[in-house]
């Protein structure tokens, strides 16, 4: 069981955007609401962080997956900062438009639905390590957690 507290939840499929808690049990989202109280669960304080469906293909794993996601997220956040698109539009392009037309393979946020989430900072500088550095720029956007099947599978 896992409880994500105070995250800025963004669901590109439904268009929802707001601060909420997310309670996860056995790989399913049980509840999305304000101020969920649960005893004996692992808790993530996501205050100041964004929570969205995981925007990566799960065929890439480990460090390479996070480097690729950080790079795409960083560039997208740059476009948002410059006013070329909204944050919701960015997440829709990353999550929905790259998936099948019927959205059946898209992760989404809904009570009773599956969880495949990422928690990220839109403001924190991302310093690429030597192996993954493509240029010398410091970029914004950093994945903090990836959650799949009710478990934290990546934590920065």
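Q: What amino acid sequence fits the structure above?
A:
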């Amino acid at each position: 069981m896992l409880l994500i507290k105070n995250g800025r939840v963004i669901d590109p499929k439904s268009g929802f955007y707001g601060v909420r808690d997310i309670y996860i049990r056995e790989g399913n989202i049980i509840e999305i609401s304000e101020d969920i109280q649960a005893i004996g669960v692992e808790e993530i304080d996501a205050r100041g962080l964004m929570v969205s469906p995981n925007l990566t293909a799960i065929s890439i794993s480990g460090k390479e997956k996070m480097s690729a996601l950080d790079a795409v997220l960083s560039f997208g956040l740059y476009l948002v900062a410059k006013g070329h698109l909204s944050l919701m539009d960015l997440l829709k392009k990353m999550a929905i438009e790259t998936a099948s037309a019927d959205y059946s393979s898209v992760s989404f946020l809904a009570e009773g639905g599956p969880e495949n989430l990422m928690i990220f900072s839109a403001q924190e500088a991302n310093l690429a390590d030597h192996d993954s550095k493509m240029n010398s720029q410091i970029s914004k956007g950093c994945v903090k957690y990836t959650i799949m099947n009710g478990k934290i599978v990546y934590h920065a």
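Q: And what stands out in the fold?
A: Residues 57-64, 99-105, 127-138 have pLDDT under 50 and may be disordered.
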